[in-house]
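Handout, section B. The chain below has 192 residues.
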Amino acid sequence: MSLDGASRARFNLDRAAVLLLDDTPLGMSILVQIITGLGAKTLYRCTSVEQAREVASTYELDLAIVDGMAPSGVGYDFVRWMRTEAKEPNCYTPVLITTAHTPASDVARARDCGGHIIIKKPIAPKVMLERILWVAKEGRPFLFSGSYVGPDRRFRNDGPPDGVGRRREDLIEKADDAVAESQPQPEARAVS
């Protein structure tokens, strides 16, 4: 989703309670500026996972923006805790994960801990708003399976690729074609 700069649509998070978790003063300052610029007034600024757990256990949250806190990755661990241990409704709170480094392993870790989406730093306010709106509109169902709790990790369901039907039907058709090819064909005779 991309926002049109010419759009007159206005978005305001003035009624949203937002948890911000970032252990660096500069990272926290930037997050606060972006989120307050979007209208949010109720911010819970946490610089440690312990503070964030206390907030998530005490207050009802509408949004969480969590830094992955590389290299230890305790931000990802907090999201997993939030999904499995926090009480309702906070266990379903949309979580945006921020990080300065996005190797495939960190993207997979963000997905597997139960985060909705990962945002690479530096963050532009427009990108943050686009991701918040995307999470609000997407409405992916929550899954509870094995060791994973969080939004469905599949982003779209396009069905099977073009030209491919159901697997069982394809196998039956291929078997029928093979049988037909293996049977001798009668020779055509010319009629005079």
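Note. The CA atoms of residues 56 and 85 lie 10 Å apart. Compare this with the example in section A.
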